[in-house]
Amino acid sequence: MRFFQLGLLAAILPTITGVAAAETVKRTSSGICHPPASSYYERTKNFRPFDSVDACLASGGRLPKKLAQNQSAQAARDDSTSYERSAFGYGWEDVDGDCQNSRAEALIATSSTTVRFATDRKCRVIAGRWISPFTGNVIQNSGEIDIDHLVPLKWAWNRGAKNWSQAKRETFANDMVNLWPVELSLNRSKGARGPEEWLPPTGQCGYVARFLRTVKQYNLRPSSAEAKWFKSFLNRCRS
């Protein structure tokens, strides 16, 4: 449901469009993602680096509360037709309040063995056994995994999600139906593209079928050309 898609900060944080591509987003051990606009950026010395805020959020991180609030207010002022990642929430939600966010829940649900947690109240999954739907490869280290949004958020935005309520968009971004564990590189390769533009190396028929089921579940509206492509591709799968 992805984890990571490389991009500049302007892709999700409209108030920091002047940041150079070389700027690092710093994720602390507590999971806070500090872009250069954060007041704690310079003071953060021990961190895991990311190339974009989107990538840091997708790894299970979250924005500093004040920065998230500022960006939420900015997003509300923006033209409603322009996509912003913040329209789907800021990173993974902990819906049931058990300290395991949607990334952790997806890892737990899809591991074929009992997962192993970090020593922080069983909040963060560090190991398990996952089979990538993109390649069939077995992955045991959660750090090698992105949680892919099967139907990318931007793709959904342009096909009806921009008219949803904020609550529905956040539900969509954290819905287990739309999340699965895949290799980092392939998730980044996919980006915001639909299956008519990008397909995984293996399991393509199952990928497209699940993609379309999710599209129908949320009443998204592909273009007529995309709908025709879906039908033609799945017909070939059945033959």
Explain what the structure shows:
- There is one protein chain.
- With 239 residues, this protein is α+β, with helices and mostly antiparallel strands.
- It has one domain.
- The protein has eight helices and eight strands.
- The strands form three sheets. Strands 2-1-3 form a three-stranded antiparallel β-sheet.
- Strand 1 and strand 2 (33-34) form a beta hairpin.
- The radius of gyration is 18 Å and the shape is globular.
- Residues 1-22 and 76-80 have low confidence and may be disordered.
How many distinct folded domains? 1
Rg calc: 18 Å
Uncertain segments: 1-22, 76-80
- How many helices? The count is 8
Number of strands: 8
Major sheet description: 3 strands, antiparallel
Strand order of the largest sheet: 2-1-3
Quote the beta fraction.
5-15%
* Helical content (DSSP H or I, runs of 4+): 25-40%
Q: What is the straight-line distance between the termini?
A: 28 Å
Structural class: alpha+beta
Taken from the alpha-carbon principal axes, the silhouette is globular
Provide the residue-averaged pLDDT: 84
Order of helices and strands: EEEHHHEEEEHHEHHH
Outline the secondary-structure elements.
Elements: E1 25-27, E2 33-34, E3 48-50, H1 53-58, H2 65-77, H3 102-110, E4 116-117, E5 125-131, E6 138-141, E7 145-149, H4 153-157, H5 166-174, E8 179-183, H6 184-190, H7 204-217, H8 224-238
Antiparallel strand pairs: 1-2, 1-3, 4-5, 5-6, 7-8
Features:
13% strand, single chain, alpha+beta, 3-stranded antiparallel beta sheet, 239 residues
